[in-house]
Every structure is written in C-alpha cells, then in structure tokens.
Amino acid sequence: MYSGVRNTLAWHETLELHELVAFQSVGLMKLKMSFRKIMDSELRGIYEKSIQGLERNINELMQFYSAAPVRTARNETLTNDFAFYAGDLLAFSKASVRNYAIAITETATPELRKVLTDQLNRGIKLHERVFRYMYKHGLYPSYDLGQLLTNDVNLAQKALSMDY
C-alpha cells in the first residue's frame, strides 16, 4: 500500500504513472494473446517471464492510483476491440516518435538526418491522427484526469485478468 510523504501524488508524476500503466497494460494483453501461438519452448519461457514481470509492474503501480490528485465516481469500462487497437497504435506511434528523435541526435550524415526528420514528422502526424480518433470516440479523455485514471484501472484489471 502507498505510504508516501504526501497524501496525493503530484500532477506530473500522476501523468507519468498513467503513461506507464496504459502502455504496460496494452503490452501485457498483446503478450497474453500471443502466448499460445509460441511453439518454441525457450521463447515461450521468455514470454511467460515477460508476462509475469508486466503483471508485477502493473500491480505495483496500481497501488498509487488511490493517491492521484483527482478521482472520479464514473466507472465506464472500455470493452471494445477498437479501443484496444487504437490504444496500441497510439502507444506504437508515441514510441516511434521518441525513437526517431533519439536517432536524429545520433546522426552525422546529412542525407540520413533529412530522411529521419521527414519520417519523424510523418510519425508525429500519425500520432496526432490516432489521438484525435481516440479523443473523438471517448477513448482518451485527456482533459478529464479522473476519467483517464479510471480508464487505466479498467484496462489494467482487464489485462491482469486475461488468461494466457
């Protein structure tokens, strides 16, 4: 149980907590959906350890949600497949933007830097498009922290309860 110095988390750490729980919950669901398809025993063992690690991470992080600065009484569950796929695409596009930004800082060749910059800009546009889709359909309530955190809890509980 959370026993921090203050009774609530800071806003900025709450948002980082949200990002980590949402990203890991989607990842956990993908691993669990893929597990039965893995026939190689060594890779299957790696998947199993990864699943267990993500479950532990999510459970450890979930204890901090009660200390978030905003809570909501609403309890809407995202059960549609399109919510999962949209969230997965959003996480992928965000990770892609970060990866391109890092790669550009390591690039010495001007031609490669130009290509990477162009691809980064396309990745930013993809991220915006996915975010706007999710926002429009109520899948990413970015201006309602309480609902955002409620959605995280529901997603994490769904991921943790999935069989593999």
- The geometry reads as globular
Measured by DSSP, the beta-strand proportion falls in under 5%
In terms of structural class, how would the helical and strand content be classed?
mainly alpha
Tell me the helix content: over 70%
C-alpha termini separation: 27 Å
Instruction: Supply the number of helical segments.
Output: 5
Strand segment tally: 0
Order of helices and strands: HHHHH
The low-confidence runs, each spanning 5 or more residues with pLDDT under 50, are none
Number of domains: 2
The major sheet is characterized as: none
Radius of gyration: 18 Å
Mean pLDDT: 89
Keywords: Capsid protein, Sporulation, Virion
Family: Belongs to the CotF family.
Main location: other
Organism: Mesobacillus persicus
Give a verbal description of the structure.
Its main location: other. Belongs to the CotF family. The chain is mainly α. It has 2 domains: 1-77 and 143-164; 79-138. The chain has helices at 11-35, 41-62, 81-105, 110-136, 145-161. The radius of gyration is 18 Å and the shape is globular.
List its traits.
single chain, 164 residues, Spore coat protein F, 2 domains, mainly alpha
List the helices and strands and how they pair.
Blueprint: H1 11-35, H2 41-62, H3 81-105, H4 110-136, H5 145-161
Helix pairs in contact: 1-2, 1-3, 1-5, 2-5, 3-4
Subcellular location: Spore coat
GO biological process, one term: sporulation resulting in formation of a cellular spore
Pfam families: Coat_F
